[in-house]
UniProtKB/TrEMBL annotation:
Phylogenetic classification of the source organism: Bacteria, Bacillati, Actinomycetota, Actinomycetes, Streptosporangiales
SUPFAM superfamilies associated with the record: Acyl-CoA dehydrogenase C-terminal domain-like, Acyl-CoA dehydrogenase NM domain-like
Species per Swiss-Prot/TrEMBL record: Microtetraspora glauca
Name of the protein in its database record: Acyl-CoA dehydrogenase family protein
Cofactor: FAD
InterPro entries reported in the protein's UniProt record: Acyl-CoA_Oxase/DH_mid-dom, Acyl-CoA_Oxase/DH_mid-dom_sf, AcylCo_DH-like_C, AcylCo_DH/oxidase_C, AcylCoA_DH/ox_N, AcylCoA_DH/ox_N_sf, AcylCoA_DH/oxidase_NM_dom_sf, Glutaryl-CoA_DH_mitochondrial
Family according to the record: Belongs to the acyl-CoA dehydrogenase family.
Annotated Acyl-CoA dehydrogenase/oxidase C-terminal domain residues: 248-395
Length: 402
């Protein structure tokens, strides 16, 4: 008769102390491994240089590689999309952001904003025209909601779409501006949300349309390895069928933001993992006072705290992913994940920076890059204040921001 004492203890992985890997299927691990392998080959050796130069060279070639990998709109069904699970998509986001938040942002905007908007709200013609090319990385999309003066309050947007003529087949004319738009300057198609006489509506805008321009935003100190732009719509004329046929109001764009926020709550843990791993390795190699700094109690306390928060955030992401795959997620549950995981990821990066000392601000290590990137991730797709109030409303039944 054998007992538990007769079985050898499983080997502990310092990067997965709780054994979360045991909760993943072989297919999920394969997805994660494939994304990690591509990132290691095509992104990791170069991303610090991209960040320093404030550029993402070869973005079209990289997007095609990501399309070949199958991660663009990978959680959508049909039209050339992979139809993978929410957990598989989340793991892909984690690996992408472990390389850089800008890379995950490229994939999120393509798949969870632009493609999802067309997939969920577009006409059959919109889907057939754009989704297969976007899934393959042959066409790049962007998502125009945020405006220069209206971020957390999209209902006050000033971008306007009006009919030019009478009847259902009259053209649309769009005027306005959008701000902080990922992929904008390289996009082939923009999903643009505008006020109409019928409320907020979404439009599929080929970026070659006269009157459309996308000036590049420069002087960023965060998400530097990412294309960020303004969208300018100056009398953009679109055919009658450029509009999403059914959806009205903010439920359209907010449904897309919920998809993107789900990817973020996974991705933030990728940035946190990268910073934690760098700090852990550094603590065993850097010696002071005659021994590695990892041998001092204060350093071990920092590493233990980072490990706990990384574990908790990853488990929360996995739980929300399993729930999304089984019964679906409410927006408040996504807010819970985004608020917690981005905040904790920032704390992990800042703590890792202290372990690396002066080297923590060098691009020879990934920590300061992740820390700067997460300052953008903290406020895009909903500021921490807005997610806090979403949770507060769910708890009390009172909307504090209306």
């Amino acid at each position: 008769m054998t007992s538990a004492h007769d079985n050898p203890r499983p080997t502990l992985d310092p990067m997965d102390l709780a054994g979360i890997d045991d909760l993943l299927s072989d297919e999920e691990k394969d997805v994660r491994g494939a994304v990690r392998e591509v990132c290691a080959a095509l992104v990791d050796p170069y991303v610090a240089e991209w960040f320093e130069s404030g550029d993402l060279p070869g973005i079209r070639e990289l997007t095609k590689e990501l399309g070949t990998l199958g991660v663009l709109g990978m959680h959508l069904d049909g039209y050339g999309c992979a139809g993978m699970s929410a957990v598989a998509y989340g793991l892909a986001c984690l690996e992408l952001e472990a390389s850089d938040s800008g890379l995950r942002s490229l994939v999120s905007v393509q798949g969870s904003l632009a493609m999802f908007a067309i997939w969920r709200h577009g006409s059959e013609e919109h889907k057939r025209e754009w989704l297969p090319r976007m899934a393959a990385g042959e066409a790049i999309g962007c998502f125009g909601l945020t405006e220069p003066d209206h971020g957390s309050d999209p209902g006050s947007m000033r971008t306007r779409a009006r009919r030019d003529g009478t009847g259902e087949r009259a053209d649309w004319i769009l005027d306005g501006a959008k701000m902080w738009i990922t992929n904008g300057s390289v996009a082939d198609v923009a999903v643009v949300w505008a006020q109409t006489d019928e409320g907020v509506r979404g439009f599929v805008v080929p970026t070659g349309t006269p009157g459309f321009s996308a000036p590049l935003i420069k002087h960023k100190l965060s998400l530097r390895a990412s294309v960020t732009s303004e969208l300018v719509l100056d009398g953009v004329r679109l055919p009658h069928d450029a509009v999403f046929p059914e959806v009205r109001g903010l439920k359209g764009p907010l449904s897309c933001l919920n998809e993107a926020r789900y990817g973020i709550l996974w991705g933030a843990m990728g940035a946190a993992r990268s910073a934690f791993q760098a700090a852990l390795e550094y603590s065993t190699q850097r010696s002071q006072f005659g021994r590695p700094i990892g041998g001092f109690q204060l350093t071990q306390a920092k590493l233990a705290d980072m490990c706990v928060e990384l574990t908790n955030g990853t488990l929360l992401a996995l739980h929300l992913g399993r729930r999304k795959d089984s019964v679906g997620l409410r927006p408040e549950q996504v807010s819970l994940g985004k608020l917690n995981n981005v905040n904790k990821a920032l704390e992990i990066c800042r703590t890792a920076r202290t372990i690396l000392g002066a080297n923590g601000i060098s691009l020879e290590y990934p920590v300061i890059r992740h820390m700067n990137n997460l300052e953008s991730v903290l406020t895009y797709e909903g500021t921490p204040e807005m997610h806090t109030l979403m949770i507060g409303q769910a708890l009390t039944g009172h909307a504090a921001f209306r």
